[in-house]
Amino acid sequence: MKLAVISFTPRGTEVCRKLVERLTDLGHVCTGYIPEKYAGEPERQGENPGGILVRRESLDRWTRRMFPAMEGLVFVSAAGIAVRAVAPWVRDKMTDPAVVVVDEGGQYAISLLSGHLGGANDLARQVAGATGAQPVITTASDVEGVCAVDLWARDHGLVIRDRVRARQVQAAVLEGQPVAVSWEPWLEDCLPWLGREPLPQGWQKISREEFWRNAGIHITVRTGPQEGEPGRNQPVLCLVPRILVLGIGCRRGMAGERLGERVRQVLGQAGLDPCALCRIASIDLKRKEPGILALAEQLQIPYETFPAEALETVDQPVEESEFVRSVTGTGNVCERAALLAAGEHSRLVVAKQAGDGITVAVAAGWRPEP
Question: Sign of the CA dihedral 198, 199, 202, 207?
Fold first, then answer.
Protein backbone atom coordinates (compact mmCIF):
# COMPACT_ATOMS: atom_id res chain seq x y z
CA MET A 1 0.00 0.00 0.00
CA LYS A 2 1.01 3.61 -0.53
CA LEU A 3 0.90 5.07 2.98
CA ALA A 4 1.34 8.42 4.70
CA VAL A 5 1.96 8.63 8.46
CA ILE A 6 1.55 11.93 10.30
CA SER A 7 2.53 13.01 13.83
CA PHE A 8 2.13 16.16 15.91
CA THR A 9 4.15 15.82 19.14
CA PRO A 10 7.70 14.77 20.13
CA ARG A 11 6.54 11.40 21.41
CA GLY A 12 4.26 10.92 18.44
CA THR A 13 7.13 11.70 16.09
CA GLU A 14 9.14 8.85 17.61
CA VAL A 15 6.22 6.52 16.90
CA CYS A 16 5.94 7.94 13.37
CA ARG A 17 9.60 7.18 12.63
CA LYS A 18 9.24 3.65 13.95
CA LEU A 19 6.09 3.04 11.91
CA VAL A 20 7.64 4.28 8.68
CA GLU A 21 10.57 1.91 9.18
CA ARG A 22 8.46 -1.12 10.14
CA LEU A 23 5.74 -0.60 7.53
CA THR A 24 8.36 -0.14 4.82
CA ASP A 25 9.93 -3.44 5.91
CA LEU A 26 6.50 -5.04 5.41
CA GLY A 27 6.53 -3.94 1.77
CA HIS A 28 4.50 -0.72 1.93
CA VAL A 29 5.57 2.49 0.23
CA CYS A 30 5.54 4.66 3.32
CA THR A 31 6.34 8.32 4.04
CA GLY A 32 6.22 10.03 7.42
CA TYR A 33 5.28 13.69 7.91
CA ILE A 34 6.53 15.38 11.08
CA PRO A 35 6.48 18.93 12.50
CA GLU A 36 9.50 21.04 11.57
CA LYS A 37 10.52 21.67 15.17
CA TYR A 38 11.06 17.94 15.74
CA ALA A 39 13.00 17.38 12.49
CA GLY A 40 16.72 16.86 12.05
CA GLU A 41 18.82 19.18 9.91
CA PRO A 42 18.72 16.99 6.74
CA GLU A 43 14.92 16.87 6.97
CA ARG A 44 14.75 20.65 7.37
CA GLN A 45 16.85 20.96 4.22
CA GLY A 46 14.26 18.98 2.27
CA GLU A 47 16.05 15.64 2.32
CA ASN A 48 14.09 12.48 3.03
CA PRO A 49 16.28 10.23 5.19
CA GLY A 50 14.41 7.18 6.43
CA GLY A 51 11.28 8.17 4.51
CA ILE A 52 10.59 11.23 6.72
CA LEU A 53 9.51 14.65 5.43
CA VAL A 54 8.84 17.91 7.24
CA ARG A 55 5.22 19.06 7.14
CA ARG A 56 4.96 22.83 6.75
CA GLU A 57 1.36 23.02 5.52
CA SER A 58 -1.75 23.01 7.68
CA LEU A 59 -3.38 19.70 8.63
CA ASP A 60 -6.38 20.60 6.48
CA ARG A 61 -4.24 21.17 3.38
CA TRP A 62 -2.18 18.07 4.07
CA THR A 63 -5.28 15.86 4.39
CA ARG A 64 -6.89 17.37 1.30
CA ARG A 65 -3.75 16.51 -0.66
CA MET A 66 -3.15 13.04 0.79
CA PHE A 67 -6.70 11.67 0.98
CA PRO A 68 -7.11 11.07 -2.77
CA ALA A 69 -3.43 10.27 -3.38
CA MET A 70 -2.79 7.59 -0.75
CA GLU A 71 -4.14 4.10 -0.16
CA GLY A 72 -3.81 4.53 3.58
CA LEU A 73 -3.35 7.28 6.18
CA VAL A 74 -2.01 6.66 9.67
CA PHE A 75 -2.54 9.36 12.29
CA VAL A 76 -0.33 9.23 15.36
CA SER A 77 -2.74 11.28 17.42
CA ALA A 78 -6.04 11.35 19.26
CA ALA A 79 -8.90 9.84 17.28
CA GLY A 80 -10.76 13.15 17.28
CA ILE A 81 -7.96 14.86 15.35
CA ALA A 82 -8.13 12.22 12.63
CA VAL A 83 -11.93 12.29 12.47
CA ARG A 84 -12.07 16.06 12.02
CA ALA A 85 -9.24 15.99 9.47
CA VAL A 86 -10.75 13.38 7.13
CA ALA A 87 -14.45 14.17 7.61
CA PRO A 88 -14.73 16.73 4.75
CA TRP A 89 -13.20 14.29 2.26
CA VAL A 90 -15.01 11.04 3.08
CA ARG A 91 -17.04 9.95 0.06
CA ASP A 92 -17.41 6.21 -0.56
CA LYS A 93 -16.26 2.98 1.09
CA MET A 94 -15.31 1.64 -2.34
CA THR A 95 -12.79 4.44 -2.97
CA ASP A 96 -11.86 6.09 0.35
CA PRO A 97 -8.39 5.21 1.64
CA ALA A 98 -7.80 3.22 4.79
CA VAL A 99 -7.53 5.46 7.87
CA VAL A 100 -5.89 4.18 11.06
CA VAL A 101 -5.25 6.04 14.31
CA VAL A 102 -2.61 5.06 16.85
CA ASP A 103 -2.14 7.01 20.07
CA GLU A 104 1.32 8.45 20.72
CA GLY A 105 1.75 6.04 23.63
CA GLY A 106 1.36 3.12 21.23
CA GLN A 107 -1.45 1.52 23.24
CA TYR A 108 -4.26 1.27 20.68
CA ALA A 109 -4.33 1.09 16.87
CA ILE A 110 -7.84 1.88 15.67
CA SER A 111 -9.27 1.00 12.26
CA LEU A 112 -11.24 4.18 11.63
CA LEU A 113 -12.30 4.17 7.97
CA SER A 114 -12.49 1.67 5.06
CA GLY A 115 -11.89 -1.33 7.28
CA HIS A 116 -12.59 -4.02 4.70
CA LEU A 117 -12.25 -2.84 1.11
CA GLY A 118 -9.73 -0.14 1.98
CA GLY A 119 -7.68 -2.51 4.12
CA ALA A 120 -7.77 -0.45 7.35
CA ASN A 121 -8.42 -3.52 9.51
CA ASP A 122 -5.32 -5.29 8.25
CA LEU A 123 -3.33 -2.05 8.42
CA ALA A 124 -4.42 -1.51 12.03
CA ARG A 125 -3.15 -4.98 12.88
CA GLN A 126 0.19 -4.21 11.23
CA VAL A 127 0.47 -0.88 13.03
CA ALA A 128 -0.32 -2.68 16.27
CA GLY A 129 2.36 -5.25 15.57
CA ALA A 130 4.92 -2.52 14.90
CA THR A 131 4.16 -0.55 18.08
CA GLY A 132 2.99 -3.20 20.53
CA ALA A 133 -0.49 -1.67 20.50
CA GLN A 134 -3.85 -3.42 20.81
CA PRO A 135 -5.68 -3.41 17.44
CA VAL A 136 -9.20 -2.03 17.69
CA ILE A 137 -11.52 -3.44 14.99
CA THR A 138 -15.23 -2.57 15.11
CA THR A 139 -16.65 -3.91 11.83
CA ALA A 140 -19.54 -6.25 12.63
CA SER A 141 -18.28 -9.23 10.65
CA ASP A 142 -14.96 -9.15 12.50
CA VAL A 143 -16.64 -8.77 15.86
CA GLU A 144 -19.05 -11.64 15.15
CA GLY A 145 -16.35 -13.78 13.53
CA VAL A 146 -18.24 -14.23 10.25
CA CYS A 147 -17.20 -13.73 6.65
CA ALA A 148 -17.49 -10.20 5.23
CA VAL A 149 -19.14 -10.42 1.82
CA ASP A 150 -17.36 -7.38 0.41
CA LEU A 151 -13.96 -8.60 1.60
CA TRP A 152 -14.55 -12.10 0.20
CA ALA A 153 -15.53 -10.57 -3.13
CA ARG A 154 -12.43 -8.35 -3.20
CA ASP A 155 -10.09 -11.20 -2.31
CA HIS A 156 -11.47 -13.29 -5.18
CA GLY A 157 -11.45 -10.53 -7.77
CA LEU A 158 -15.23 -10.22 -7.93
CA VAL A 159 -17.00 -6.93 -8.60
CA ILE A 160 -19.99 -6.05 -6.42
CA ARG A 161 -22.79 -5.06 -8.76
CA ASP A 162 -25.21 -3.66 -6.17
CA ARG A 163 -24.05 -2.38 -2.77
CA VAL A 164 -27.60 -2.28 -1.37
CA ARG A 165 -27.95 -6.00 -2.02
CA ALA A 166 -24.47 -6.54 -0.57
CA ARG A 167 -25.60 -4.95 2.69
CA GLN A 168 -28.77 -7.06 2.68
CA VAL A 169 -26.85 -10.30 2.20
CA GLN A 170 -24.31 -9.27 4.83
CA ALA A 171 -27.18 -8.62 7.24
CA ALA A 172 -28.43 -12.15 6.59
CA VAL A 173 -24.93 -13.49 7.32
CA LEU A 174 -24.78 -11.57 10.61
CA GLU A 175 -28.20 -12.93 11.58
CA GLY A 176 -26.92 -16.47 11.09
CA GLN A 177 -29.09 -17.20 8.07
CA PRO A 178 -27.78 -19.69 5.50
CA VAL A 179 -26.38 -18.13 2.35
CA ALA A 180 -26.94 -19.90 -0.94
CA VAL A 181 -24.21 -19.62 -3.59
CA SER A 182 -24.76 -20.27 -7.28
CA TRP A 183 -22.72 -20.01 -10.48
CA GLU A 184 -22.77 -21.22 -14.07
CA PRO A 185 -20.76 -24.49 -14.25
CA TRP A 186 -18.51 -23.31 -17.10
CA LEU A 187 -17.09 -20.59 -14.85
CA GLU A 188 -15.18 -23.29 -12.95
CA ASP A 189 -12.82 -23.54 -15.96
CA CYS A 190 -12.08 -19.82 -15.75
CA LEU A 191 -11.81 -19.43 -11.99
CA PRO A 192 -9.44 -22.10 -10.59
CA TRP A 193 -10.69 -21.67 -7.02
CA LEU A 194 -14.39 -21.92 -7.84
CA GLY A 195 -15.86 -25.23 -6.75
CA ARG A 196 -12.53 -26.29 -5.24
CA GLU A 197 -11.93 -23.82 -2.43
CA PRO A 198 -14.23 -24.27 0.58
CA LEU A 199 -16.92 -21.63 0.91
CA PRO A 200 -17.12 -19.57 4.13
CA GLN A 201 -18.95 -21.10 7.05
CA GLY A 202 -22.72 -20.89 6.57
CA TRP A 203 -22.44 -20.53 2.78
CA GLN A 204 -23.56 -23.45 0.64
CA LYS A 205 -23.53 -24.23 -3.06
CA ILE A 206 -27.02 -25.42 -3.95
CA SER A 207 -29.08 -26.08 -7.05
CA ARG A 208 -30.42 -23.19 -9.07
CA GLU A 209 -33.99 -24.15 -8.20
CA GLU A 210 -33.27 -23.99 -4.46
CA PHE A 211 -31.07 -20.95 -4.84
CA TRP A 212 -33.88 -18.49 -5.39
CA ARG A 213 -35.57 -19.39 -2.07
CA ASN A 214 -32.68 -18.14 0.08
CA ALA A 215 -30.59 -15.05 0.56
CA GLY A 216 -27.84 -15.71 -1.90
CA ILE A 217 -24.81 -14.84 -3.96
CA HIS A 218 -24.78 -15.49 -7.69
CA ILE A 219 -21.42 -15.41 -9.50
CA THR A 220 -22.00 -14.41 -13.12
CA VAL A 221 -20.70 -12.38 -16.05
CA ARG A 222 -24.22 -11.78 -17.27
CA THR A 223 -26.73 -9.01 -16.70
CA GLY A 224 -30.47 -9.28 -16.39
CA PRO A 225 -32.72 -11.78 -14.63
CA GLN A 226 -29.99 -13.33 -12.49
CA GLU A 227 -30.61 -10.50 -10.03
CA GLY A 228 -33.85 -12.17 -8.91
CA GLU A 229 -37.36 -13.06 -9.95
CA PRO A 230 -40.69 -11.19 -9.69
CA GLY A 231 -42.19 -11.41 -6.21
CA ARG A 232 -38.96 -12.69 -4.70
CA ASN A 233 -38.44 -11.63 -1.06
CA GLN A 234 -34.88 -12.81 -0.40
CA PRO A 235 -32.00 -10.59 -1.62
CA VAL A 236 -29.64 -11.89 -4.27
CA LEU A 237 -26.24 -10.34 -4.78
CA CYS A 238 -24.56 -10.77 -8.16
CA LEU A 239 -20.76 -10.84 -8.05
CA VAL A 240 -18.97 -10.36 -11.36
CA PRO A 241 -15.61 -12.05 -12.09
CA ARG A 242 -13.30 -10.04 -14.33
CA ILE A 243 -12.51 -12.80 -16.82
CA LEU A 244 -13.72 -11.44 -20.18
CA VAL A 245 -11.29 -10.27 -22.85
CA LEU A 246 -12.45 -7.96 -25.62
CA GLY A 247 -10.79 -8.84 -28.93
CA ILE A 248 -10.99 -5.98 -31.39
CA GLY A 249 -10.00 -4.94 -34.89
CA CYS A 250 -10.89 -1.77 -36.76
CA ARG A 251 -10.15 0.47 -39.71
CA ARG A 252 -7.31 2.91 -39.15
CA GLY A 253 -8.41 6.15 -37.52
CA MET A 254 -11.63 4.79 -36.01
CA ALA A 255 -12.78 7.12 -33.20
CA GLY A 256 -12.77 5.82 -29.65
CA GLU A 257 -16.36 7.00 -29.17
CA ARG A 258 -17.51 4.90 -32.12
CA LEU A 259 -15.62 1.86 -30.84
CA GLY A 260 -17.19 2.34 -27.42
CA GLU A 261 -20.69 2.47 -28.90
CA ARG A 262 -20.08 -0.72 -30.83
CA VAL A 263 -18.63 -2.55 -27.82
CA ARG A 264 -21.58 -1.54 -25.62
CA GLN A 265 -23.95 -2.73 -28.34
CA VAL A 266 -22.26 -6.13 -28.63
CA LEU A 267 -22.10 -6.64 -24.87
CA GLY A 268 -25.73 -5.58 -24.48
CA GLN A 269 -26.95 -7.97 -27.16
CA ALA A 270 -25.02 -10.82 -25.52
CA GLY A 271 -26.24 -9.90 -22.03
CA LEU A 272 -22.68 -9.49 -20.72
CA ASP A 273 -21.75 -7.16 -17.88
CA PRO A 274 -19.05 -4.60 -18.84
CA CYS A 275 -17.69 -5.01 -15.30
CA ALA A 276 -16.49 -8.48 -16.34
CA LEU A 277 -14.01 -7.08 -18.88
CA CYS A 278 -10.39 -7.40 -17.76
CA ARG A 279 -8.44 -6.40 -20.89
CA ILE A 280 -8.57 -5.51 -24.58
CA ALA A 281 -6.51 -7.44 -27.13
CA SER A 282 -5.58 -6.96 -30.78
CA ILE A 283 -2.74 -7.41 -33.26
CA ASP A 284 0.60 -5.57 -33.06
CA LEU A 285 -0.37 -3.56 -36.16
CA LYS A 286 -2.92 -1.83 -33.91
CA ARG A 287 -0.56 -1.28 -30.97
CA LYS A 288 -0.75 2.51 -31.31
CA GLU A 289 -4.26 2.82 -32.73
CA PRO A 290 -5.62 6.00 -31.02
CA GLY A 291 -9.24 4.86 -30.93
CA ILE A 292 -8.45 1.55 -29.20
CA LEU A 293 -6.10 3.28 -26.76
CA ALA A 294 -8.91 5.74 -25.94
CA LEU A 295 -11.35 2.85 -25.46
CA ALA A 296 -8.97 1.11 -23.05
CA GLU A 297 -8.64 4.33 -21.07
CA GLN A 298 -12.40 4.76 -21.03
CA LEU A 299 -12.94 1.21 -19.77
CA GLN A 300 -9.92 1.47 -17.44
CA ILE A 301 -8.50 -1.88 -18.50
CA PRO A 302 -5.13 -2.85 -20.03
CA TYR A 303 -4.65 -3.07 -23.79
CA GLU A 304 -2.23 -5.65 -25.19
CA THR A 305 -1.30 -6.72 -28.69
CA PHE A 306 0.28 -9.79 -30.27
CA PRO A 307 2.27 -10.42 -33.46
CA ALA A 308 0.46 -12.28 -36.21
CA GLU A 309 2.65 -15.34 -35.59
CA ALA A 310 1.44 -15.58 -31.99
CA LEU A 311 -2.20 -15.19 -33.04
CA GLU A 312 -1.74 -18.08 -35.47
CA THR A 313 -0.90 -20.39 -32.55
CA VAL A 314 -4.52 -20.31 -31.34
CA ASP A 315 -5.83 -23.77 -32.19
CA GLN A 316 -9.53 -23.21 -31.52
CA PRO A 317 -11.91 -22.92 -34.49
CA VAL A 318 -12.31 -19.30 -35.61
CA GLU A 319 -13.83 -17.60 -38.61
CA GLU A 320 -11.09 -17.06 -41.20
CA SER A 321 -10.80 -14.35 -43.85
CA GLU A 322 -8.23 -14.53 -46.64
CA PHE A 323 -8.47 -10.77 -47.11
CA VAL A 324 -7.64 -10.18 -43.43
CA ARG A 325 -4.77 -12.66 -43.75
CA SER A 326 -3.35 -10.81 -46.76
CA VAL A 327 -3.35 -7.54 -44.79
CA THR A 328 -2.37 -8.69 -41.28
CA GLY A 329 -0.70 -12.09 -41.63
CA THR A 330 -3.50 -13.91 -39.79
CA GLY A 331 -6.97 -14.88 -40.93
CA ASN A 332 -8.72 -13.54 -37.85
CA VAL A 333 -7.69 -10.79 -35.44
CA CYS A 334 -10.46 -10.24 -32.89
CA GLU A 335 -11.28 -13.86 -32.01
CA ARG A 336 -7.66 -15.04 -31.98
CA ALA A 337 -6.52 -12.04 -29.90
CA ALA A 338 -9.32 -12.49 -27.39
CA LEU A 339 -8.64 -16.22 -26.99
CA LEU A 340 -4.88 -15.77 -26.70
CA ALA A 341 -5.17 -12.98 -24.14
CA ALA A 342 -7.76 -14.93 -22.11
CA GLY A 343 -5.17 -17.61 -21.42
CA GLU A 344 -5.80 -21.02 -19.90
CA HIS A 345 -9.09 -22.77 -20.74
CA SER A 346 -10.20 -19.80 -22.85
CA ARG A 347 -13.47 -20.03 -24.73
CA LEU A 348 -15.37 -17.72 -27.05
CA VAL A 349 -18.38 -16.16 -25.40
CA VAL A 350 -19.19 -13.89 -28.35
CA ALA A 351 -18.03 -14.89 -31.83
CA LYS A 352 -16.83 -12.24 -34.28
CA GLN A 353 -19.29 -9.42 -34.77
CA ALA A 354 -18.40 -7.28 -37.79
CA GLY A 355 -19.80 -4.01 -39.04
CA ASP A 356 -18.91 -0.40 -39.89
CA GLY A 357 -15.21 -1.21 -40.07
CA ILE A 358 -15.11 -2.75 -36.58
CA THR A 359 -14.78 -6.40 -35.56
CA VAL A 360 -15.42 -7.46 -31.97
CA ALA A 361 -15.24 -10.80 -30.16
CA VAL A 362 -15.31 -11.72 -26.48
CA ALA A 363 -13.48 -14.62 -24.84
CA ALA A 364 -13.48 -15.84 -21.25
CA GLY A 365 -10.57 -17.48 -19.52
CA TRP A 366 -8.11 -17.39 -16.68
CA ARG A 367 -4.60 -16.03 -16.87
CA PRO A 368 -2.62 -15.66 -13.62
CA GLU A 369 -1.07 -12.28 -12.95
CA PRO A 370 2.71 -12.21 -13.55
Answer: negative
